[in-house]
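ingest -> fold -> write
write: protein_1
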Amino acid sequence: MTPTLAGRYRVVTADLRGYGASFKPEATLDLSNYSFRAMAQDQLALMEALGFSRFHVVGHDRGGRTAHRMALDAPDRVASLTVMDIVPTRHLWETWSAPVATDYFHWTFLAQPAPFPERMIEADPDAFFERCLLGWGSAKLADFPRIEAYRAAWRDPATIAGMCNDYRAALRVDWDLDRTDAARRVGCPALVLFGREGAMAKHYDVAATWQDYLDDMRAAAIPGGHFFVDQSPAETVRAISAFLDGLPAL
């Protein structure tokens, strides 16, 4: 998807802190180092360092939650927001149910105190993360051409710890931040994309969950599950391009 978009736009991609090749700080006692606010500040600082004062933001999963926080905390810099296959963090916690917990068990498992989930995952990281890739709607390993790069990342104990700290922060830091900001809405144009066969679409009217968070929203279902970006890259690019093409030039 990124190479296609890069043919028409200047595209900047970055791993979130704790993930991939990015810095993996020690978690503080309150886990604020791994909040979406901290991750948003990373991305805002990166864009400033690269010379971009205003830009469009596109994020999938944890990247989408970071993008949402960027749009809340820096509305003068985010020209548009695209979130992919998520419902708002506060909405997910406040509507947590047995069916959601069954499909999204990792939210509470990864949030357990260290080092319990880390040690469990380190025993067989491929089994755990491949279960995640395949368990959230209609995906198969062949849908992920860069699977070896994923495996290299998720076998790193520091990355496993970073991922766990992200989920711990979502429960213990971000939920409080989101409740504090419950009256705030994103004012810029926003696009909500979700996998037609994914777990979120199965349990939620995804577009409806965003109605109270976004002032100017479009929404569309893309063929595939949670990882529709990998399963249906052409359809994803078309949806994002059509959205961006309809906005004023930066």
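write: protein_2
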Amino acid sequence: MNPMMTSFAVGLLLTTLTVGRGTNNAILMGAAPHEDPTFTTIDFPGAASTQAFGINPRGDIVGQYVTAGLTHGFLLSDGQFTTIDFPGAASTQAVAINARGDILGVYVSTGLAHGFLLSGDDFTTIDFPGATSTSPNDINSEGDIVGFYVSSGVNHGFLLSGGSFTTIDFPGATVTRPRAINPRGDIVGFYVNPGVNHAFLLSDGTFTSFEFPGATFTRPRGINPEGDIVGFYGSAGLTHGFLLSGDNSITIDFPGATLTDAEKINPRGDIVGFYVSAGLTHGFLLSGEK
């Protein structure tokens, strides 16, 4: 095993809550509807905070945790946590994992953000040419990667496919940040114009703007092969997770939380993210029996 990766065997089901069906409760509407969806809290042992950012088809989960003021990435697979630290980095986040088990992330070194791909035990740095910082956000089963980079103080999106970078800019926007890509190449993210956050879907070369109904802002975070989209939105000063599936707009709130953020959704409709309760940040898995 890579010397920068350490493992801890733990029980996954730390907190499980059954979610009812109704206003501000989650209904999973993926490839096949789930029955009796449940929340499961994910806390890295001894960490001050834990955030889950990615999940693949087999249920492997990646994210970050903070302990002693330092940020580390993690992989949670078959009930076992593995720490992921890019060699020599000041901080590491694991943000996505695909069906092959390739892990995408971001590390900070000398104050600058760089992307990385961890395949097996091998780390590869991802930097957009000439950029001051590069932050990848998602990787699909084909190995295509989306994210954003900063150049001359401006945020641009990118697609990295077949070893080649392509810039993604929403027309007229001052900021473009792609957040997720599915196997067929559909990309979701957000853009700023003018001074307001808007969500977008980029499919077959065409941008489409969308918003969660009644939201003051909408930020997509994940899209699965069926086209189901998850993320978070703002309303009345509060932040809620969401699922958009077909014509259904569904709010996702962890019970009792002051903030809920849905980050990724896999083909089964399992959703990961994080929530804040009593000032503490915890990861979650939202799943159910088909």
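write: annotation protein_2
Residues 1-34 have pLDDT under 50 and may be disordered.
The chain has one domain: 5-20+35-289.
pipeline exit 0
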